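Memo to structure team: turn this sequence into structure tokens by end of day. - J.P.
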Amino acid sequence: MDKKTVTTISYLSRLKIDGEKEEKITNDLENIIKFVDQLNDIDTSDIEPLTNPLEKTAKTRDDIVTADNLKKELLEIAPSSNEDYFLVPRVVE
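Reply from structure team:
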């Protein structure tokens, strides 16, 4: 990645880059390219290609309730409540 490439990218993306930030952006783009280039090192020979990402189904788990229902206890200690709700003063007339 060189300054000419960064200048071309900034022109094509219609971004104005300050001269003092150009060096940092050049280094950042180089680091991004190196990071993405690591994907070439991964062995994918045993992985079937997908023609559509929706071919895979989402892993699911059983929906198990783990929390206690504290409705009655909370309504009992509320300043004002009925059988199912907290009662609050009216704020809109």
